Amino acid sequence: MMIKAIASNYVAFHEGIHPGTIIYSVKTGKILDTVCGNVLTEQEIFNRGWDLDSYEIVSPYLIMPGLVDSHVHLNEPGRTEWEGFETGTKAAVAGGVTTVIDMPLNAIPPTTTIENFKLKLDAAEGQLWCDVGFWGGLVPHNLDHLKPLIEAGVRGFKGFLIDSGVDEFPAIDKRYIQQALHILQGEKTMIMFHAELQLPEAGHEHTVVDHHGEGIDEFDDCNMLSTVKSLSSVEPKYGQVSELIQHHEEYPMDSIITPLEAAEYEANDKSLANVDPCDYKSFLLSRPDHFETDAISLIVDCLRNSVLKDGIERSPFVHIVHLASMEALPILKHAKEIGLPITAETCFHYLSLAAENIPESKTFYKCCPPIRSEKNRKALWNALRQGLLTSVVSDHSPCTPELKNLAKGDFFSAWGGIASVGLGIPLLYTNGASIAEIVKWCCENTSKQVGLDHKKGFLRTGYDADFAIFDMNTYQMVTNEKVYYKNKLTAYDGSKLKGLVRNTYVRGKMVFAVEGMGHSEHPLGQTILERRST
Ligand SMILES: [Zn+2]
């Protein structure tokens, strides 16, 4: 048995950052023994009963558990020109991410049936540099597929309350959510929601104006922007970009209509012609905070009904993905206080970027829900530190440059999504998170969320030897040229970040070294298909 050890004066154990030594097996990929408090000598390790094949002391660099990024869109098969298993997982390990959980949508077909899941697994074969687990999709008419998908190893299901932007992944409604919660009683799984909802204007008591944060100018058309259907799909429904997303075919130039033109036609309101689609504020006003608060209120309502009806012990866990609005925090807080089984994540971009700083036409900052005000950004940090939000993920969702429509810079007609898998550690570190916080939010709590906290996310005996070796004292410049994504376009091009991941190990094998080796020659990642036990 090939036995190795790695040690440093800085090891991120669950108990805190301490000197430590980790002994692991390359053969089984498991941690065999950990010593918190000391960098042992080879003799001391031998005295503990371990005959080492090699020993590496990496001080002053930090050893931390590999990240579990539970929200990544790899888009394969079907939209492989956007990303792919190979490029996406290579980018992940280059940033210390050793496990990603792939989202059920934006690949074709989506992961909504067993047949589709098999196609996804075939596509992943031989292309994984990190371990990859899978979410299933909750879409109309697939309730019969949920239990078989759980058995096949999906970690849970994600559904939309608003247009997802792709035809093959339609939204679901309250009735359907309640049916799903009922059907999944007693199952070890999780139901997750993209929580944005556009209610008909009449049924809504708020206006956008009295809801909006400081620092964002208002203008008269904002209420209209958030009520027209033409602008409410998560991704553009009209125009050339929409055609490229939906149908992959050439669209005659003279019939192009922009989403804003479509909205003007729909609302029969000429004032929308005054809206500047290249101004980020216009886009922000089209997706107000109440989209999120309305959606989360509805979900909490469904969960409460389900708990009252079927009992709390048997209720599946509910999780809100990419929570972006501070206004939703009190709703979440209340739901937790009354004991509902609900958690929520936020993303690197909501914690590191603010609407006030997004320049005109820079559509690579577009995502849904949108990046909101600086005040909002700070409130999300507070919510994390209070434990109200429990995890931070990338929501890595790239696309081709054409779909970002950069030449025109029209936010409404650009695909939404920010590419950032693998940038999480330095992004959070630069913005003031401690290593212990990063480990809690991005390793421990995400592994719990996906039911893998018996083997991933912690540096403990018996766990997978997944390590990220992090230089806390250097700086790196993120550039589009340097990223490993298939489409080299990020919202962080030109950002100077504190810290750099030097090496990444997946189950005891080095898969990335910033100096020398680069990526391992062979893909050493595996699919994660074990059924959840929690
Ligand atoms: Zn997503």
From TrEMBL:
Residues 63-208, 317-511 form the Amidohydrolase-related domain. It comes from Kluyveromyces dobzhanskii CBS 2104. Signal peptide: none annotated. This is WGS project CCBQ000000000 data, contig MAT. Its cofactor is Zn(2+). One of its GO terms (cellular component) is cytoplasm. One of its GO terms (biological process) is purine nucleobase catabolic process. It comes from the Eukaryota. Keywords: Hydrolase, Metal-binding. GO terms for molecular function: allantoinase activity; metal ion binding. PANTHER family: ALLANTOINASE (PTHR43668:SF2). InterPro entries: Amidohydro-rel, DHOase/Allantoinase_Hydrolase, Dihydroorotase_CS, DNase_TatD-rel_CS, Metal-dep_hydrolase_composite, Metal_Hydrolase.
